[in-house]
Amino acid sequence: MLHTIEPGGLDARLLRSAAEGGSRFALAESARARIEASVRAVRELVSRHDAVYGINTGFGKLAQTRIADDQLAQLQKNLVLSHSAGVGKPLEAPVVRLMLLLKAASLAHGVSGVRGEVIDALLALLNADVLPVVPEKGSVGASGDLAPLAHLSGVLIGIGEVFVGGRRLPAVQGLTKAGLKPLELGPKEGLALLNGTQCSTALALHAAQRLQRVFDAAVAVGAMTVDAAKGSDTPFDDRIHAVRGQPGQREVAGTYRDWLHDSPLRQSHLHCEKVQDPYCLRCQPQVMGACLDQMRHAFNVLLTEANGVSDNPLVFADQMEALSGGNFHAEPVAFAADNMALAIAEIGALSERRTAMLMDPVLSGLPAFLIEHGGLNSGFMIAQVTSAALASENKSLAHPASVDSLPTSANQEDHVSMATYAARRLHQMLDNTAGIVAIEWLSAAQALEFHRPLQSSPAIEKLHATLREKVPFMHEDRLVAPDIEAATRLVESGVSLA
Description:
The protein contains 20 helices and 9 strands. By secondary structure, the chain is mostly helical. The model has no long low-confidence stretch (mean pLDDT 94). Pathway: Amino-acid degradation; L-histidine degradation into L-glutamate; N-formimidoyl-L-glutamate from L-histidine: step 1/3. Its EC number is 4.3.1.3.
């Protein structure tokens, strides 16, 4: 499927298509006039011999150094080479695909002085799934994601490496695969390619995509645990949530009602003596609703960033001016990522508490550690310990990255956002939380079967069957790690009521 990229026109659907791969993207023809005008403006500014940052000057602390006209092309190439200083393992394919799309979309606004053929080349790499090898570490999230974007952009001039079908190849071979030849960058083009928040934004957007799936699974599994523990559905009554008015809370309560609707198991204990359930069951709408509100706010910030321009300087062709500013500072992305980290940690923390509750026969009314012949068998005892370890690790990772800053470039760039780390660490947290929810799913499914022949709701029984296609009931102790791995894959793939 071919998607046309209009400046400011990215949405969740396009971002998802880009991350998944397999779609094609093209620059809207309507954007080309403004792009060409910005290129002409750069040429005019160069001909005037006025000092314009990054066009005919050095970079960062070296901005006071003027560069001769016959060295401007070399200046842009040197910028890419010198800034390709990343370390660590390569970023994953969905993130690099998003980086290519976001950089092309930013340049398409026509205020960066970059030729249309450069933008087309970025999209050609994306369309051919020729993905630059981008080390994950090396950006502080201000002056843009310089090192990651240098590695991304270096491929356009034949420098660096790419992944093609899982194989790591020299950049020149990747260009051939995409039907391209190495480019010579014009004035301002290297700087425009490197300046921007596209790495941190791509990391955070991909985390948001993953988080939605983990969130949906956590709500579904949490509903299963309510029934497995013979909990009450009264706390999900809309009247409770309407009088508070928090939108996420009210919406999520409705989702819990949908999952639990028409459960014979619930009907079997409507008039029991238990008055109130533990918070991990009763307060799910309040906690998960707050997480949902944070997730949506963060995504809206990231979508705005994806549709904006974070280059510097910006070229306004109508006024024939290049204005230096600070749109490359990724503070909005850092804050959004930090808020997502809180949500990820809380989703996992609440899930772990539900698992722990199921282990305790006093609270759950079920066999200790959900296994027959306890003592001889340990059941889910250590699976819950693993869940606790993952939840505890997330607490450390949830510490806000945005409050940290270290001056760079000899104190010229003296306050930075740390947005790239803020976004990158989300994926480690998501790995942890997906594992926590997977362990709860295994536990809740096991617990349900101790209530047979009573059935849960049709929706929860379908969720139970989905897990049982991969993981059987635990009659006696067995190797648990493969079960957790299988359940984690199911969590990451997403669940729905449909």
